[in-house]
Predict the 3D structure of the following.
Amino acid sequence: FARFDGYPTDYHGAEPCDEACLLPEIRKERYSAPTGIGFLCQTGTCYAASSSMAHLAEVAAVLECPCNWFGADCPDDWAPVQAIDHTAIYGDIVATTLTVNVEDWKRIIDNHQPGGVIRIVQRDPADPVSGRVREQPYALAYAPSEGILEILTAPPDMSLHPIPREVAERVRSLPSGPIADGNLFVNPSIAGFFNKEWTYLLDEIKASRGAINRLVVL
């Protein structure tokens, strides 16, 4: 499928997500089409209605892995973060580099599209082996050398529920150095700039065979 949005067909165990569960870019006025009600969450929670954790009674719809989309809790593509380094501060913004192994780095870069994001994910610290997944999307600012990814982190939005801001708070608070307790991963890039036919920007430029002379990104 070029695109597929899945929703439970009834509301048993699911309801439209509370606004405090969602970052502004994925709220109902912006995402996701075509329902106009936005994402569904498991009733009374900030967890996506569809989950691969089918053994949990509260899961409203079972997600089949592999799946790599917002809220997907499939670990198939996760790349362990080996170390973190806070390299610069620009007002409230912190430049942070993540170290992953070279093979994982190549896979992340191969999948990346301009305008796409990577997700930093972790499992519930109370159950880091099989617990529920939290995630935070980041624009990939720079990949200066093999194994190194740079992101810019802003202060977490304190109007959000604690669950959707948990990873952002952890990334900002971690000291520079190896990730001592593990449980921090990069989920490779999704989405990117595309046109109304769902063609990504770079693919469209290549297909134009030189017909595009100038490109302006706002």
